[in-house]
Amino acid sequence: MESKKRRGILERLNAGEVVVGDGGYVLQLERRGYVKAGHWTPEAAVEHPEAVRQLHREFLRAGANVIQTFTFYCSEDKLDISGNVTNITGAQINEAACDLAREVANEGDALVAGCVSKTPCYVKSHSEPEVKAIYKKQMDDFLRKDIDFFIVEFVDHVEEAVWAVEVLKTSGKPVGATLCISPHGDMRGVPPGECAVRLVKAGADIVGINCHLDPLTCVRTVKLMKAGLEKAGLKAHLMIQPLGFHTPECNLGGYTSLPEYPFALETRAMTRWDMHKYAREAYNAGIRYIGGCCGFEPYHIRAIAEEMATERGFLPPASEKHGLWGAALEMHTKPWVRARSRREYWENLLPASGRPKCPSMGTPGDDYEKQLESNIPT
Amino acid sequence: MESKKRRGILERLNAGEVVVGDGGYVLQLERRGYVKAGHWTPEAAVEHPEAVRQLHREFLRAGANVIQTFTFYCSEDKLDISGNVTNITGAQINEAACDLAREVANEGDALVAGCVSKTPCYVKSHSEPEVKAIYKKQMDDFLRKDIDFFIVEFVDHVEEAVWAVEVLKTSGKPVGATLCISPHGDMRGVPPGECAVRLVKAGADIVGINCHLDPLTCVRTVKLMKAGLEKAGLKAHLMIQPLGFHTPECNLGGYTSLPEYPFALETRAMTRWDMHKYAREAYNAGIRYIGGCCGFEPYHIRAIAEEMATERGFLPPASEKHGLWGAALEMHTKPWVRARSRREYWENLLPASGRPKCPSMGTPGDDYEKQLESNIPT
Amino acid sequence: MESKKRRGILERLNAGEVVVGDGGYVLQLERRGYVKAGHWTPEAAVEHPEAVRQLHREFLRAGANVIQTFTFYCSEDKLDISGNVTNITGAQINEAACDLAREVANEGDALVAGCVSKTPCYVKSHSEPEVKAIYKKQMDDFLRKDIDFFIVEFVDHVEEAVWAVEVLKTSGKPVGATLCISPHGDMRGVPPGECAVRLVKAGADIVGINCHLDPLTCVRTVKLMKAGLEKAGLKAHLMIQPLGFHTPECNLGGYTSLPEYPFALETRAMTRWDMHKYAREAYNAGIRYIGGCCGFEPYHIRAIAEEMATERGFLPPASEKHGLWGAALEMHTKPWVRARSRREYWENLLPASGRPKCPSMGTPGDDYEKQLESNIPT
Amino acid sequence: MESKKRRGILERLNAGEVVVGDGGYVLQLERRGYVKAGHWTPEAAVEHPEAVRQLHREFLRAGANVIQTFTFYCSEDKLDISGNVTNITGAQINEAACDLAREVANEGDALVAGCVSKTPCYVKSHSEPEVKAIYKKQMDDFLRKDIDFFIVEFVDHVEEAVWAVEVLKTSGKPVGATLCISPHGDMRGVPPGECAVRLVKAGADIVGINCHLDPLTCVRTVKLMKAGLEKAGLKAHLMIQPLGFHTPECNLGGYTSLPEYPFALETRAMTRWDMHKYAREAYNAGIRYIGGCCGFEPYHIRAIAEEMATERGFLPPASEKHGLWGAALEMHTKPWVRARSRREYWENLLPASGRPKCPSMGTPGDDYEKQLESNIPT
């Protein structure tokens, strides 16, 4: 399979285009029955390719310009630890995932991003050669296939992300790097602005944030990265792929420290209307690669694409089944539902949880937050 | 395509087996980009068969013993009104949907149910011949294909459901009938017990409730149906396919009267643990056909199958990617997440909404509730 | 001290006047430092008369037409059990309380009601002679002083209330009787309508509900009493003195079964605007003696008097320090506070709790509710 | 009337004693019917001395070591603007208030503090001589009576507070100064640490925070003041008299910007158990003058005194009517209430609001917050 001649990620971003990213794979495929929570490894690319292909297609149809390979946690050391698959190698998953991403990307105008994430090896060994060897091996898997650029994602120590970028840059392909950190900085307290500077100096073409915190908090963190780059006189494109949940309580540790993680997050899920607001905020902050991570389902990505319709000049395919701002409700049989076919209604609605015995905010895991706090200079 | 030799729905229920139903199609496919909210018509069976097939597969994998044809609102009069498709006929959709359901059902030990729902014609004309003609036409579509039994669902006037049952019984196949009513009765105030009696007298083999209200409320309504049948000396199997949302406020009109319907229901979504409780309550009430409707995603159906594992003697395929009661969290990297790998944690958790400016209960559309109330004798 | 010549309670009610009751003493005096929670006995009438006098005055100033003697739980058997006072007799308290009530009542146009409440003896002995002897002793204390009528209050078995009424009627003075029961009936499941009939047949001139449940629920119960009386062809005046807290969860057992009772009820306290709504509902239900019980502070009574200003033809003295519906905010220094000087603002406000980790509804003490439920026929 | 020989405020604080302040007057007297909301002027000292005296007594009985004169907003310019009283002069109120405070203080071991608050003149004229003349006049009223020290309170520009301190120091009496500001600083963005330095340099013996924000936030602000003083090598005693409401939303403007201000704050009221936590935090922060402001009722002050019982060596008089941590519930008639007679129960309770249609957090008045924000350097 070969890539059609299409414009690369940097061409698009350099031209000032809005690039819509795809949504989250592991949480959604967990709910569909193909990923094991706690492990979060992507063996479904080999075991159930039709399920992965279908989710790729839904994101493409929702407006995504990038299809990320379903290769989260797909380093050999992580696969070993999880013990989730014994008869499939990391290389097999990486290669199958590249094929699936390419197949679907070619059904539209999308690019394929080869994705790597943090390694257990980093925390365990703290050895630059060992960690880099792991990233090198995964990169080689990708390079045997046809991908357009790389994304380093879900790394919470900037040092590890820098090592990953340094490896991936040797491929000659563009590299994006997103940390899963809060406005307070990385796990060692390195502030977002300085993280961005280090990543760009290491060669990253695009920097930003993914996962762990809600969209508006992630926008704040990317703004701090941008300010850091400006202060240092550096330039890079900005990207963002936040969590699709309301998580006001976990400013430091991210949503894994919430009591609801990972099996009772339903009530925190964002609506499509929340995503309109997020996309606009991200755009206004100067971010041009706007996608999602855990919790982002296809209709959330469609909401980004619909909010960006004027800037991009078109609606995504899935909008044929979606009236903007609820317009399709105009023909509902109940008059009070018809009355909801307008932007003001949905923008101002404060949705009830239907759970009167539940609080609106929880208490995140204390120890973790405290540990992080002790790393962060105030 | 032809059905393998497998035991029919009545054979299974007569033998005392627990039959796990599938989940909801229209809401889930709306979020995946293939169904238009407000219209809710199933043209995706023709337009995007891969998306419908994949969702069927996920429900099968989650443990469903029945695959329902994706034919909701697929009567010609409803399709005309919605105006959503002009180049596809109802017959084309019905036939494509039968093929898809059969294809997936045959991948496991599942039956195909041909589904009909309420017709606009009933409220408009109130004409028995006209309504019956519509059901007859849809039945004929199904009979050209290979289905195992019929389900009448989402009807809120028992009279219309009776007419549907009378038509479908002429096929010689078993018929299940589920009303979308509350414990207060149907739209004209006919109490659940009497509704059940009328349906069984019309020929229904299985009766129960689907959609519109949350699981535990629907269990209460089915119990009232059961009591009505017992009082009348009648026998029938009981089924239930409730809403997958917490809806404590809409005791009469159902969830369409909630302010969040249909685009901000996220926060009301039930967790998998809520479904364990529901499945157990339904089983204890004597219900043996236990499934879901709008809001039930594959992992909710898996939760039913896991709760019923002892009664059924096996776990569903999708449980290979799911530790019971969170057991797979035992190998999570964070110690406080590992501590959640046990039943007590999830059973007692009161999930927070992360939305401190939102209330926990809303105010349903008043006019509708009042109108219904006036029909219901107190 | 002697009563001025003033019109009696029945003269007023027979003339169709709205009689405003006073508010709750024990909870308010607990917060002021003079009553011991758990005991709830009224020895402050002897120990700290200035504190009781001041609260009487505040209720008078707020518009009350009746000053109730501060004699709650002031039967000898209850005082013995509580062990709260050893050097003061019940007779001393009753007499001191009568003097205080009379002193303040005479400062305005108010009547003095001598109050008796349920006795521990009833549940312990279930002996009519014993219980009646206790009520007789308390009545005699009152008759040595100058009171205008009697109120039996806070009784949850109608049988005991009937006994109390039978005793007090021997005084020749009017008797009002209020039960602390829910719409489901008394502790033995006697429905409100039948309770009212029994009380009126025993001689009660005024019947109704006090304490234990929130205002609108108590209005519902009084309506059931009224319907019972009408069905039986009986006539009596209606009175109501509900709880000043939001208690949607405790339909059976009342607020003592709430987890917040008695030291964390703050968050459930009703606003003055809630009281406007309550007073109007009570009036519309035909109730003409409208007051409050636990949780009603002077400003809540003022709100009743302000809502009833048109019907009564005057405002209470304390309204000189209160603009109707917030009118006095017109001269506030902050413009956004000035904007709140209107009825619509306060009627439509949904006040936030400022407690994002707290739920909106609690779980009442199960055992008690279950025990009661078993007494109530469904 | 003359002061008994008792130890002064500085003697006590210098000796390391915990001084318990009194609670809030204007809000509580508004609810009792003697103060007009929006005006908040203290004419009740003349019009209804018995009401003011009673509230003083309740605070004394609850454990207060200081009785503040009821002279809030009692400068001539404020009284003129409010137009609330025309026949009483500021001097008359100030003098009557001194007599009432002294009368009650002498009933126990309490001191009298003469209180001044911010003047409308400051914002209007910004004239040092004019503002100082107003403070001088009020000081002279106090000096004609017998007071022990001065408190400047409820000032949100440190400059105005400095002017007040400079005037009051000419009396030779000790001066305490509390600002109503947030951790972000005063209305012009002067940080708390610098505010403290300026006040101490102006002569204040005690500095701290009062009103406007909830207790734990006020403790944070006082800590910042303390740090500022330490950095500057200055010494002063610390005091705190915060709001008695949960106000997590109004970090800048304070509770007047909350939608519930001033007539629907009930649901935000703190419990006595919240006050235990607050008193402990304040003590741990090195604050030794610990009282309350708006929302603090007598039982809240008692809670401070009970939490500080070990440090002070005694319980307040009102504790004779209060079992510590609910101990008096041990003799309640209901077993599940008896089970609440222990510290763990009340410390861990998350009280429900009983208002399922209300949110847990509100949106403060935007314009004001924005205006303040623009003054505060980030």
| Spatial gap, N to C terminus of chain A | 52 Å
- Overall shape of chain A: globular
Biggest sheet features of chain A: 8 strands, parallel
Number of folding domains of chain A?
A: 1
**Hey, roughly how much beta strand do the residues of chain A contain?**
5-15%
Largest interface, counted by CB within 8 Å of the partner chain's CB = A-B, 85 and 85 residues
Provide the CATH top-level class of chain A. Answer: Alpha Beta
Corresponding CATH architecture of chain A = Alpha-Beta Barrel
Look at the helices and sheets of chain A and give the structural class: alpha/beta
Enumerate the strands of the largest sheet of chain A in spatial order, edge to edge or round the barrel: 1-8-7-6-5-4-3-2
Rg calculated over all Cα atoms of chain A = 20 Å
Quaternary structure type: homotetramer
Low-confidence stretches of chain A: none
Q: Tell me the number of strands of chain A.
A: 8
Mean pLDDT of chain A, as a whole number? 94
- What is the string of SSEs of chain A from the N terminus onward? HEHHHEHHEHHEHEHEHEHEHHHHH
**Would you give the CATH topology of chain A?**
TIM Barrel
* Number of helical stretches of at least 4 residues of chain A: 17
- The CATH fourth-level homologous superfamily of chain A: Homocysteine-binding-like domain
Relative helix content of chain A: 40-55%
Protein name (chains A, B, C, D): Betaine--homocysteine S-methyltransferase 1-like
Function (chains A, B, C, D): Involved in the regulation of homocysteine metabolism.
Binding site for Zn(2+) (chains A, B, C, D): 211, 293-294
Region (Disordered) (chains A, B, C, D): 354-378
